[in-house]
Design a protein that fits this description.
Helix content is 29%, strand content 21%. By secondary structure, the protein is an alpha/beta fold. The strands form 2 sheets. A 6-stranded mixed beta sheet has the order 6-5-3-4-7-8, with helices on one face. Strands 2-1-10-9 form a 4-stranded mixed beta sheet. Strand 5 and strand 6 form a beta hairpin. Helix 1 packs across helix 2 and helix 2 crosses helix 3. The longest helix is centred in the first third of the chain and has 17 residues. The two termini are 24 Å apart.
């Protein structure tokens, strides 16, 4: 995860996220991640806990994921707040939707600072057809080894798939690692047939 932090910190005024409603530079993205991480720390998000995230295609969705994983928690993405059919019990429920509070529900647990270390392995869960769960682990380490900036400079990557599904999530992370601009399709369809059947957005 250090690679993602380095890229966000060093990206400066390059646009990380762009949409019809707003844009966010890499510097602003890094500052937002720090703020969200501090909020999750204050709420007691601890190693080994599960954080559920909902809210659609917006920068805070992926930043909440990274912040929670930096706290040592695993993340499950849900399409909406009412979706609990995945059978995963969440210790904290977060929303990136500006019309909802950031922390929808939480247990106010506590964790000693000594328990928080840079995680070597992270786990992200995604619901797919029939209520099944897809688990993606060690994605950051693999992507950090293979993703490098384009020699022609930052590219624009149009994100059509939702961040709450494996392909959209991976495309977003890879674009950030490459220093590219993620152009958000804010009304991305939340219903994706399966990870294998989702068309890859073209950048």
């Amino acid at each position: 995860m250090t690679r993602i932090l380095d890229v966000l910190c060093e990206g400066g005024d390059t646009i990380a996220f762009a949409s019809r409603s707003r844009s966010m530079s890499y510097r602003e993205t890094f500052d937002t991640l720090r703020r969200l991480h501090a909020t999750l720390k204050n709420e007691g998000v601890a190693p080994g806990e599960t954080v559920a995230i909902t809210g659609g295609n917006m920068p805070e969705t992926i930043l909440l994921q990274i912040a929670a994983q930096l706290r040592g928690a695993r993340v499950v993405h849900r399409d909406d707040l009412s979706c609990t059919a995945d059978g995963v019990e969440a210790d904290h429920v977060l929303s990136s939707d500006p019309d909802c509070p950031l922390l929808v529900a939480g247990r106010r647990t506590t964790a000693a600072e000594g328990d928080i270390v840079m995680p070597r392995r992270v786990e992200t869960l995604f619901p797919v057809d029939g209520g099944a769960i897809v688990s993606c682990g060690e994605e950051y380490e693999e992507m950090a080894r293979t993703v490098r900036p384009n020699p022609d400079g930052p590219q624009q990557v149009l994100l059509i798939a939702p961040m709450s599904h494996p392909i959209g999530n991976r495309i977003t992370l890879k674009a950030l690692l490459a220093g590219d601009t993620v152009v958000l399709h804010e009304r991305a369809p939340e219903s994706v047939p399966s990870a294998a059947g989702t068309p890859t957005p073209q950048g």
